[in-house]
Amino acid sequence: MSRSQAVRAGTRLLVSLALLCLSSLLALVIGVGVFSWSVRARLERGLLILVQQEGVSAETFNIYYFGSSTMAGEPYRPEASIPRIVEELLDKKVLGRRMRSVNLGQVGADFAYSLERLRQVVRNKSVSHPSLAVIYAGHNEFLKYDGCTARLFMGLPPGYVELAERVDGLLSPLEIDQRRFLDVGVVGAQERLAVFERYRSELREAIALLTANDIPVIVSTLASNVADWEPNRSVFCGDKGMPEEFGRQVERGRDLESRGDLRAAIAAYNDALGICGSVAEIHYRMASCYRRLREPIQAWGEFQQALDEDGMPIRATSDINDFIRGVGDGRLVTTVDAVRRLRERSADGLIGFDLMIDAHHPNLKGYVLISELIAQEIRRRFPSVGDTVRTIDEAEAVTRFGIDQRKNFEVAVSSGRWFTRLATWRYDPRDRLSRAEAFFRQANELDPARYEPYVGLAMVQFLRGDAAGGESRVAFARKVNAEDVDSYFRGGWARRVRERAHEATATGRSVPLGQWR
Fold first, then answer.
1. For the chain, how long is the longest CA-to-CA vector?
2. Residues 217 and 135: beta-carbon distance below 8 Å
3. 486-496 pLDDT, tens per residue?
4. Looking at residue 491, what is its pLDDT?
5. Which distant-in-sequence residues (6+ apart) come within 8 Å of 484 by Cβ?
6. What is the pLDDT of residues 417-434, one digit of tens each?
7. Peptide bond connecting 75 to the previous residue in cis, omega within 30 degrees of 0
8. What CA–CA distance (Å, rounded) separates 131 from 149?
9. 320: helix, coil or strand?
């Protein structure tokens, strides 16, 4: 082949490759567009079906609820949720009209999802007939930034993010093997600010859309378990390595705290924070000391700082709640403060496991308190002669919403699995694994003939590095239901947890539990 022929062949190859890249890019763009349209179309069809099922009409008072898993009622759904409890508190009547509740809460969704659902309600308002919107959303703004693939999909519709998370479940190493006392945040400082700004922008857009269509809205702050939920990740400012003096002060503080010398421990932790003030774990430990000293004001400030500095936030930060508190206009937009309500009703002025079942899902008592707050605001906004807000205590809620033995079993299994999963998000999983174990044992007492508690206890043992203990529980579970147990362990995450425990046993490698340095 002559030189000129070689040049022409090379040129043709480059052109062919360029055309292939362009066509692939075009196909990807078209694919994204088609998939986005199909996701939105499916959600819109679902909305219209739900509107019909709920009996919405121009004659009924129709409340649309937006949010994520807390609005959906986790882990009590569908028996109990904020919309269902509000209905009972208002006797299913507002302004003398029958009340209809359309719950658009979606587990794991960020506010972008809620905004899309809200647009659909407004776009179809000749059918949806919205009388009021209630928004309780903002815990999940950082979820889709975690993992190897999810960040690539973070600007796309919810269906893509869900797909990315499934891929991560197959490809990513177990969180527990990556976590360290001083860790890496899911976003950097600038990106973190961008997440907050995106939330604020989306909430402003939602409110503007509602008010432009004369639809009243109630927005609530988001309550979290600040006192009993440790930060998922702590990030060190400055150099990546741990300065010797910082480590020395932390070690000293931990030792003093374990011996009950809480004032001295606080002083040591303060010295560590003088080196780097953004380490969430140190703020949490200081708060715990103040709590033991029965100084709730100081404890609350440190617990809130620990939440705000968490490198993997799954609870609404103070930036989000402070913004919510300021969005009311005194006319169509009002706010209620669920954080303040739960603090007022908590055992020690701090929100912990007395009102929360995990990081940000209330227990039944907590759900009733938040629902009361929203119901009272609805009555205030829409007063009618003779209408009052009922009171329901926790015991009555158990009966009224059918929280029976079967449901308590489901709640215990669901909570145990959630604590098991979240145990792998932290460098020291021991407390979360202990709570998971307690939930599974509770479930086993409620129904010893079901396999799920035994599988859950097996997973706890596997994560502790006890392969033999885990396998003994798997064997017991298989005697109850071999098919479902085998199916469970074919799942990517469960399979890798099990394999990891066996690898540690085979190699003699101990599983790191609570190694902070």
1. 98
2. yes
3. 999 998 889 99
4. 86
5. 451
6. 999 999 999 999 999 999
7. yes
8. 40
9. helix
Sheet of 217-220, strands arranged across:
93-94, 97-103, 61-67, 132-136, 217-220, 333-336
The neighbour count for residue 33, using CB atoms within 10 Å, is: 10
Q: What is the pTM of this model?
A: 0.88
Distances (CA, A) of 80 to 45, 136, 223, 364, 420: 25, 16, 18, 8, 24
Place of tokens 């307690």: 438
- For residue 61, list its beta bridge partners: 99
The β-bridge partners of 134 are: 65, 218
Nearest-angstrom CA–CA distance, 476 and 479: 5
Q: CB of 131 within 8 A of CB of 61?
A: yes
Amino acid at 134: V
Which sign, positive or negative, has the C-alpha torsion 181, 183, 186, 187? positive
Contact 118, 125 (CB under 8 A): no
Helix (H, G, I), strand (E, B) or coil at 459: helix
* Pairing verdict, β 97-103 and 93-94: antiparallel
364-381 vs 82-89: helix axis angle to the nearest 10? 60
What residues contact 111, with CB distance under 8 A and at least 6 apart? 137, 138, 141, 199, 202, 203, 206
Tokens 């609870």 identify what position? 315
The contacts of residue 469 (CB under 8 Å, 6+ apart) are 461
* 362: its two tokens: 């209330």
59-117 tens-digit pLDDT: 999 999 999 999 999 999 999 999 999 999 999 999 999 999 999 999 999 999 999 99
Q: What's the first-to-final CA gap in the chain, in angstroms?
A: 65
Long-range own/partner contacts, residues 455-458 (CB < 8 A, 24 or more apart): 455/485, 455/488, 456/413, 456/416, 456/417, 456/420, 458/498
Q: At 125, is the secondary structure helix, strand, or coil?
A: helix
